[in-house]
Amino acid sequence: TVDSHLPQMILVILVLGTFTMGDLYDSLECHNHHGHCRRICFHNERSIGTCTNRRQLCCK
């Protein structure tokens, strides 16, 4: 029934409101390339992309 799925639907709406699908994809793509999302890359890392609405760099 619809009532039994209501809490799950609310959770999905809250999650999608917090993360847009593009942000989630960027972060997953970064981790799939063995990178880490950071505001600033360490001196021995290089930026290979962006994460979370381009506010962070994907560093490897």
UniProtKB/TrEMBL annotation:
All copies of domain Beta-defensin-like, residue ranges: 26-60
N-terminal signal peptide: 1-22
Pfam families: Defensin_beta (PF00711)
One GO location term (cellular component): extracellular region
GO process annotations (BP): defense response
Keywords from the UniProt entry: Signal
Protein's UniProt keywords contain Transcription: no
Name of the protein: Beta-defensin-like domain-containing protein
Biological source species: Varanus komodoensis
